[in-house]
Design brief:
The protein is built from four helices and six strands. It has a single domain, classed as Alpha-Beta Plaits, CATH 3.30.70. Strands 1, 2, 3, 4, 5 and 6 form a six-stranded antiparallel sheet that branches. Belongs to the HPPK family. It is an enzyme of class 2 (transferase). This is 2-amino-4-hydroxy-6-hydroxymethyldihydropteridine pyrophosphokinase.
Length: 165
């Protein structure tokens, strides 16, 4: 099971709301050769982390199945981000699309990129709440911590589930 976090807080190249961009990204992920999207979380609105004057983010998680290596998946996701108009400038900048590999099965790796599981996933409600929607029994392969325990350990973070459209 591959878990991909999806987020946006700016319109993508060509227009569209962050929510529309996130939904568009799911379709682009599904088009990666050899992969299929098996579940998509609800969508959530969250404040930027770290706090800033940016607009709120729309976040979700896609559960994906298939055979692909970490580096190839990272390259494919970064190509989708670029297609949406993402330009890498400064860390934590507002962006039309952010795609992160949260985990790839039991894979644990510190180098090269991508680091797996994602090193900050257990600290972020905007990752864990949607992750629980698609993989309620998921356990971090590095720590063994379950998603429910990780959510319970989080400090308060502004986040809300968006109404289904």
């Amino acid at each position: 099971m591959i878990l991909v976090a999806i987020g946006a807080n700016l319109p993508r190249q060509g227009g569209g709301t962050p929510l529309e961009t996130c939904r568009w990204a799911v379709g682009r992920i599904a088009a990666i050769p050899g992969l299929r999207v098996t579940a998509v979380s609800d969508w959530y609105e969250s404040a930027p982390v770290p706090p800033s004057g940016q607009p709120p983010y729309v976040n979700g998680v896609a559960r994906v199945e298939g055979a692909i290596g970490p580096a190839a998946l990272l390259a494919a996701l970064q190509a989708i981000e670029a297609e949406a108009g993402r330009r890498r400038t400064v860390a934590n900048a507002a962006r039309p699309l952010d795609l992160d590999i949260v985990a790839m099965g039991a894979c644990v790796r510190d180098a090269p990129d991508p680091v797996l599981p994602h090193p900050r996933a257990l600290q972020r409600a905007f990752v864990l709440l949607p992750l629980r929607d698609v993989a309620p029994d998921w356990r971090d392969p590095r720590t063994g911590q379950g998603v429910g325990a990780a959510i319970a350990a989080l400090p308060p973070q502004p986040i809300r589930r968006l109404a289904a459209a």
